[in-house]
Amino acid sequence: MAELKKIMECVPNFSEGRDLAKVEKIADAFRGKEGVRLLDYSTDKDHNRCVITVIGEPEPLGEAVIEAIGIAQKLIDMNKHDGQHPRMGAADVVPFIPIKNVTAEDAVALSHVVGKAVGENFGIPVFLYEKSATAPNRQNLADIRRGQFEGLEEKMKDKELWTPDYGPATPHKTFGAVAVGARMPLCAYNVNLDTANLDIATAIAKKVRNIGGGLHYCKAMGVDLKDRKQTQVSMNLTDYTKTSIYSAFEMIRMEARRYGVSVVGSEVVGLIPQQALIDCVEYYLQIEGFAPEQIIENRIME
Prior knowledge:
Blueprint: E1 7-10, E2 13-14, H1 20-27, E3 36-44, E4 49-56, H2 58-75, E5 91-100, H3 104-122, E6 126-130, H4 141-145, H5 152-155, H6 159-162, E7 178-182, E8 187-193, H7 198-208, E9 218-225, E10 230-237, H8 245-257, E11 263-269, H9 274-287, H10 296-300
Parallel strand pairs: 5-7, 6-7
Antiparallel strand pairs: 1-4, 1-5, 2-4, 2-5, 3-4, 8-10, 8-11, 9-10
Helix pairs in contact: 1-2, 2-3, 7-8
């Protein structure tokens, strides 16, 4: 495959994590396309959600994303969907992230192209969010998604606040609506707890997240992992250079002790920047008495 000169990333989230045949059909939109590379896709039965990571030249990437949303429209009926993760549409959120030889402005422009096509081609309401937001109340994805699919019709009756940027002024009957936007890279990171009490996970999430007075650049919520008889603190770390993965992990572990609960595992969802993991390695090695002077690259630079 030819080398990509401009690299834009997209991490679309689809509201299907149980029927793997449907997931594969959606992922097929990104396979075998010139100028597009499917890097990763993962599913979660409890969340009932699929997260796809794809990169490409802006134009073919946008076309592939539009195709994938069209496939999701045909395959996913939100009236029959249930899961632990908040969602308002079959394709719930579609962020574009500048990676190489493209700018945040390029990502915003691409979000408009994709949003306009989705609204016109499929009759789906599109809300532009984060850096693409056209109003202050649309910058935060949680504000747009509040009420979820079930509350979308009532929410969109407020024409002043919730007339979509593209597409019809009422929800699609089976799809719902989608948020499309531009943002910088983030770390989707979850920490699992050895308790089935969702109230505990939710209480910890409220302590950890920024809006609750916790870590800056951290969004968090409690999730019920019914099949595992566990709960989870599910997070988005929107700037890992200022709030690290290890900071979030250690704060959750500290808060969990208050309830006599232990951390039993953690997971990264999708792809994250390499430096975010290097930061974790350096932190935990230092706890074990490992000194920076033991890293060969550091000694070479002396």
